[in-house]
Amino acid sequence: LNMLDLAGIPLLTKERGEDHPFVLVGGPCAYNVEPLADFVDLVALGEGEELTEELLDLYGEWKDSGESRNAFLERSAGIPGIYVPSFYDVSYLEDGRVSEIIPNNSAAPKRVAKRIVRDMDSVYFPERVIVPFMDIVHDRIMLELFRGCTRGCRFCQAGMIYRPIRERSPEKLLELAEKLVRSTGYEEMSLSSLSSSDYSGLEQLVRQLMSRFEEDRVALSLPSLRLDSFEKEFIEEMQKVRKTGLTFAPEAGSQRLRDVINKGVTEEDLVKTVSDSFASGWNSVKLYFMIGLPTETEEDLKGIADLAKLVKDCYYQTDKEKRQKGLKITISASSFVPKPFTPFQWEPQDTMEQLREKQQYLRSALRIKNVDYNWHDSEVSYMEAVFARGDRRLGQVLLSAWQNGARFDGWTEHFNWDAWNKAFEDNNLQPEFYAYRRRKKDEVFPWDHIDTGVSKASFLWMEWQKAQKAETTPDCRLNCTGCGIQRLGEGLCQ
Ligand code: SF4
Q1: 426 C-alpha vs ligand 1 centroid, how far in Å?
Q2: Angle, alpha carbons 262-158-82 (nearest 5°)
Q3: 333 close to 363: Cβ distance less than 8 angstroms
Q4: Does 8 fall in a domain?
Q5: Which residues line ligand 1 (CB under 6 A)?
Q6: Which of 31, 116, 395, 405 has the fewest Cβ atoms within 10 angstroms?
Q7: Does residue 188 lie within any of the structural domains?
């Protein structure tokens, strides 16, 4: 809203005239875009590479045609993956839940399916990226190995909305890596994906990249490692050039809770991987967890502290000759936010009081030498939970909060709790309704007209039932669990 205001563009779509620009959003956060429905003209659902070209071609034609603004929106709605929020009416039940969402324009489909790129080798990938003069997040080459993830972690929205798996070939990746190193001069390359260590040709690729770029001293890093598939050999391979930080995400402190969330890694996986890492010369390990996951108990929280101690023990059990001095273990525990399009979309978030108590518990339990503990402000996580599963009425709250002075809220030091509280009060909406309410199986969600391909009733709900019994679902590369994505196109995910 701030950007639109600074650009002199009316904030509300209904106030934009024929000569105003179209406002288009996309990306994972825009899958449930309903809280932004009053402000955006168009939404790109799914992957943008092909869709953007089609939309721009259409825009050129439309400009030449001299047709109305609405005509462009109607024609855009015909492009697979384009959603025009103003072409849908939402009605509500007396208790505030959504009653139905229906198109009000014949150009709009009943449900809008996300766009999927089929061939990762032929699709556009940036080969000449801007190299900034200042420090930025991801200040390195980001080489995308593949899209999608088959692990099926139940809290993870990306794992559901990026299906199915599509890999780039090792040849294509080497070609891209070469071009990117030449055009940017970066000395670090991240092999990025949702679960990079699942790339089927990882070993071959890492070896080839290392031998190709060893002379240029380009360091490789693998983000978001899974403990079970990260072999010692790879650790050593990457170690050859330079040590980069190691991060692991067990997500939960006990095996029971890891089974609930379907994070199929074990304590043995963690022990093996960190022991190998310490023996290879790493001395700094970061472990990511979430608190407030469905079914969590004190035992699960205690498990986080136990794992921190276990990692410390692994370090001291490593041969003195091999390990490096200066052990540092960082435990980062964020607060769970239930996300739309996931098996946990029916569940309430823990209240702020519960989250604070859990953080307090961990603060004392993690008072261990060499261990640091980071946590997130519960107010921010609460607002995330409200807007993640919000409906169109929250647009008014956003507008009021902005008018009350809320700016740059993603930065904790700028988060203005009073501005948000007042905005909810002024619009007579309760944030608890969105964050703390357990939904019934058949509730119509504000995002039900958006089709990610993954089925709500036959996959997500069933996964939620299994979660409550701590039953796991295997990686669907091994055995297809029928998530429904094949509906979105012939030959998808064979
Ligand atoms: S269709 Fe089967 S294999 Fe493909 S993503 Fe869905 S569950 Fe996995």
Answers
A1: 45
A2: 145
A3: no
A4: yes
A5: 150, 163-164, 476, 480-483, 485-486, 493
A6: 405
A7: no
Q: What would the two tokens of residue 129 be?
A: 């990226």
Run means of pLDDT, 10 residues per run, the chain, 494 residues: 97 97 95 98 97 97 97 98 98 98 98 97 95 90 95 97 96 97 93 89 88 88 58 60 70 97 90 87 91 98 97 94 91 97 98 97 97 93 97 98 93 92 97 98 98 96 98 93 92 82
- Domain assignment present for 48: yes
Number of domains in the chain: 1
Nearest-angstrom CA–CA distance, 161 and 163? 6
Q: What is the DSSP string of 216-282?
A: TT-EEE--SB-TTT--HHHHHHHHTT----EEEEEESSSHHHHHHTT----HHHHHHHHHHHHHTT-
27: domain range?
Answer: 2-113
> Which tokens in the block code for residue 100?
């139905």
Predicted complex ipTM: 0.94
d(CA 317, CA 319): 6
How far is ligand 1, taken at its centre, from the CA of residue 49, in Å?
Answer: 23
For residue 215, tell me if it sits in a domain: no
Strand order in the sheet with 42-44: 24-26, 42-44, 82-83
Counting ligand 1 atoms within 8 A of each CB, the residue from 146, 463, 477, 481 with the most, and so the one to mutate, is 481
Q: Which atom of ligand 1 is nearest to the CA of 493?
A: 4
Beta-bridged to residue 329, according to DSSP, are 285, 371
